Amino acid sequence: MADLSQTTPSAFNCEGGLVLNKSSFMLQPGEAIELRNFEPDIEGGYRRISGYAKYVSAVVPFTSSASEKVLMVATFGSNVLAARGTSIYSATPGGSSWTSIDSGRTGAGKYRFERFNFDGTDKIIFVDGTNAPVVFNSSLSATDVSASAVAGSKFVVSHRNHMFYAGKSTTKQEVVFSEPFNEDGFSSGQGAGSIKVDDEITGIKVFRDDLFIFCETRIFKLAGSSSSDFAVTDVTRDIGCINGDTIQEFAGDLIFLGPDGLRTIAGTARIGDVELGTISTNVQSIFNDNISSASEFDSVVIPDKTQYRIFFTKSNTAENSTKGIICVMRGQKFEFSEIRGIRPACTDHFVSSGDVIVLHGAYSDGFIYRQEQGNTFDGKVILGRYRSPDLTFNDPGIRKHMQRVIINYKPESTIDADLFLRYDYDDVDAARPAAYPLDSEDVVALYGGTASTYGTTLYDNGASQPLVRQSVEGSGFAVALKVEDGGVTAPYSLKGFQLEYQLGARR
Questions:
Q1: CB neighbours (10 Å) of residue 266?
Q2: For site-directed labelling of 22, which of 71, 144, 353, 494 has its Cα 20 to 30 A away?
Q3: pLDDT value at residue 321
Q4: 123 with 233, same domain?
C-alpha cells in the first residue's frame, strides 16, 4: 500500500463549464474539455441532467405519415395543445388520448404562439406561416383572425394591449399591429397600423417595455405606448438573429443566436443605449458546426436553474447524435455544457403554480415529452461524460505517480459511474489503467443522526456530501480525469476533486 504521508495533494472545484476555445495547457483545473449531458449547477459543481418522459401517453395523430413532425406544443390552462399534419389537438397532461379542436390547416409550417388576456379572459393565439392566425379561449373554442394582412404570419406577440404579427412571406419587412384590446381588429382609425423596417424579420420579442424586432442583419426596437407614439430606433445595424426560435428572456436579458454564436441584449441606465455581446466563445466550435447545417432551432428556459437550452436538429441526424447546448448564468459568468439525445421539432416552457414545465414535440415519433423528468430519455440511456483538462500541477516537467483520487459528489440516488485516468495527453504509449467503479464509501447523514459515524461521513451543516476515495495507479507528467455513467441511474453532481500523488523524476 502506498505511503500517503509522502503524497502531495491538489484540489479543485468543478466550475467554469465546457471550454473548447483554449488549449488544454491554458484551462483552469475545474473547467472541462468534455461535459456531455451534465449541467453547470447553480448550487455548485456539474450535475448529470435529468431525462424526459411522455407527457401524454398517446401519439399525436398524424394526417398522412407517421413520420410527420409535431409542429407545435403548448400548455394552456389545464390542457396541453399540439399540432401535427393539418390539425390542432388537445389533451390532458398524463392522459391517453388527443381530441381535435381545429382542422384543415393545410400547408402549415412550424407554429408560434402567444398567451394573452385583453378582456379578462385567458386566450392563446397561433400562427403557422401559411394559414390565418387562430385564437382559442379557455373553453378551447377556435376563432380565426380574419384579416388578410396577417394571414400567413410566422411570428406573434402581444405588446401594449395590441397584437403584433410579422413574418408574412409577401411582407417580410413589415410588422402589423391590431387595435388595442382586439387581436382581430385592424382599423387604423381605431389604433391599428403597421411598421416597416429595411431588413427581413426573423423574430419579434417583448423585453421590458419595448418590442425588439430581430432581422437577418440588424435589430430594431419599437418604443412608445400606443399607435400615436410608436417609434422605431436602431439597436444595431451590424448583427442580426439567425432564427427567432432562439430568442428568450434569460437572466434579466434577451438571448438570441447571431451568426457568430449566442448573444445578449443588455439595457443600460442610459436611455436608448443597448450593449451587445457574444457570450458563447468558449463553445464556439459547436455553434460553427451547427449554425449552417441545422434544419431546426429550438430553445427553452428553465428559470429556477438560471438555464437556457438551445437545440440544433438536423433532418439526417439520429436522435442520440442530436446536439444541444446548455447555458447557465452562474455568479456573473456564463458556463456551458453539451446535450446529446434530445431531438425536438418544437418546444414550450411555462411556469404553472411554481412548477416549471418544459416540453418538446418529437421530430419523428409524434409524442410530446416533458423534460426534467426521470432518469432516462424515455427509456433510452443518458450517457453522461465529464473530462477534466490535462493537469500538470503547475510543473509539466516532473513525473507524478498517482496514488488516490477523492471525489466530492452529491448523489440523488444510487450512482453507477466509472472513473478513468488518462496520462500524458492520451499518449498511446502511456499507461491506461482500467476503469474504477465509483461507489460511495461514505454514509449520507446529518450531524447527530443515527447513521453518523465518526470518520465516515463528511458534515456540512446538515447538507452531507459524500466522498469517493479511490486508490489509483499510473504515472505521467500530466493526468486527466474522466467520469462516465451508464445512463440509467438518477442524476448526481460532481462537486470537486482532490488528487494525491508522489513526485518523481524531472525529464
A1: 14
A2: 494
A3: 87
A4: yes
Range of the domain at 9: 4-49+385-506
Q: Give the pLDDT confidence of 134-175 residue by residue, as tens digits.
A: 999 999 999 999 999 999 999 999 999 999 999 999 999 999
187 within 8 A of 149, measured Cβ to Cβ = no
Q: Which of 207, 224, 240 is the last residue of a domain?
A: 240
- pTM summary value: 0.92
Q: Give Cβ neighbours of residue 395 (< 8 Å, ≥ 6 apart).
A: none
Q: Which residue has the cell 446536439?
A: 323
First to last CA, the chain: 26
What is the DSSP secondary-structure string of 381-401?
----EEE---B-TT-TTEEEE
The domain that holds 158 is classified in CATH as 2.120.10.30
- Which residues have CB under 8 Å from 345's CB, separation 6+? 69, 70, 71, 110, 296, 298, 313, 360, 361, 362, 363
d(CA 225, CA 287) in angstroms, rounded, equals 37
Q: At residue 257, what are phi and psi to the nearest 5 degrees? A: -95, 115
Cell reading at 419: 472513473
Tell me the per-residue pLDDT of 77-89, one tens digit each, with 9 for 90 and over: 999 999 999 999 9
**Residue 98 lies inside a defined structural domain of this protein:** no
Please list the residues that pair with 257 across neighbouring strands.
262
